[in-house]
Amino acid sequence: MSTTSKVVLGVSVLFTLSTVVGVHLKQTWDRERLHEGVVRDIERLERKRDNLLLEAQRNLTQELEAQRNLTQELEAQRNLTQELEAQRNLTQELEAQRNLTQELEAQRNLTQELEAQRNLTQELEAQRNLTQELEAQRNLTQELEAQRNLTQELEAQRNLTQELEAQRNLTQELEAQRNLTQELEAQRNLTQELEAERHKRDTGLKGSNQPQD
């Protein structure tokens, strides 16, 4: 092998070795850098997690403080609500008592009105009874007056009947007298006729007796 080939081969081997070593060193350095980056990332993540935990704890503390304040406020509100409820119940009881008092007053007034109406009804009943008695007395008076008038009418009719009876008797007497008068007149006429006949007969007899003489 020539010297040039040896040099070229040595240079090639040296270049190859240096390349391999460089690549290995670069890989090692990159791996260390990557490891350092991972470590830094882990540290950053831990710090971030710690910060997040601290932030969460602070927020939780604030929330707990707010909850405690809210609990206290709710407790105060509950106590106030209970007091208001008690006051409202007391107000309702007072209102109920006032309404009951008003109802009792209204019932008492109504009872008084009913008593007054009952008394008025009794007075009206008494007046109605009195009115009915007066009406009955007036009706009785009217009936008595009607009976008296009827009695007077009956008395007048009886008197009229008696007068009519007397007139009828008088009429019968007059009729009898007229009939008697007529009979007497007839008898007188008959007597006159008989007298005339007798006179005629006597005249005729006288006339018949004179020639004989």
TrEMBL record:
<protein>
    <submittedName>
        <fullName>Uncharacterized protein</fullName>
    </submittedName>
</protein>
